[in-house]
Amino acid sequence: MISQPEPPPQSSSSQESDPSGEHAKQPPPPAPMSFWQTMVSVVHAMIGVQSRKGAEESWQQGSAAKFIIAGIIFILGFILMLMLIVKLVLAS
Predict the structure, then answer these.
(1) pLDDT of residue 90
(2) Where are the domains of the chain?
(3) A Pfam family matched by this chain, by name (predicted)?
(4) Distance CA 78, CA 45 (A)
(5) Residues contacting 42, CB < 8 A, separation 6+
(6) Helices marked H in 13-63 — which ranges?
(7) d(CA 91, CA 32)
(8) pLDDT in tens, 39-67
(9) pLDDT for position 57
(10) Which residues contact 32 (CB under 8 A, 6 or more apart)?
(11) Are 14 and 23 contacting, i.e. CB atoms less than 8 angstroms apart?
C-alpha cells in the first residue's frame, strides 16, 4: 500500500496565533520633517557627514519638494557667502 504524502501544514493566521484577537501593533509612521529638520539634513548631506541610515530616515520622513527647495536655498546661501568673503578680502 502506497501512502499519500501529508499536505504541508497551513500557515496560521494572526487570529489563530493571537487568541485575544489583537493584531501585532505596527509602529506609527514617522512624522513629516519640519523645514528646519530638512535644512539640517541637506547641510549634513552637502558637507558629507550624514550617515546612510540618517539619509534613509530623512528620505522616509521628508518629501522630495522640501529637499529640492532646501538644497537650492543652501546653494544660494553658499554662493552669497563666498561672494561676501571675496569682497571682504579684496576690500582690505
Answers:
(1) 95
(2) 31-91
(3) DUF2970
(4) 14
(5) 67, 70, 71, 74
(6) 14-17, 35-47, 52-61
(7) 45
(8) 888 888 888 888 888 888 888 888 888 88
(9) 84
(10) 61, 62, 63
(11) yes
Cell of 91: 576690500
CA gap 81, 87 in Å, rounded: 10
| CA–CA dist 87, 76 (Å, integer) | 17
Residue labelled with grid coordinates 518629501: 63
Residues 54/44, Cβ–Cβ less than 8 Å: yes
- Rounded Cα gap, residues 87 and 92, in angstroms: 9
pLDDT at 81 over 90: yes
Confidence band, pLDDT 50/70/90 cuts, at residue 77: very high
Please say whether the beta carbons of 58 and 33 come within 8 A.
yes
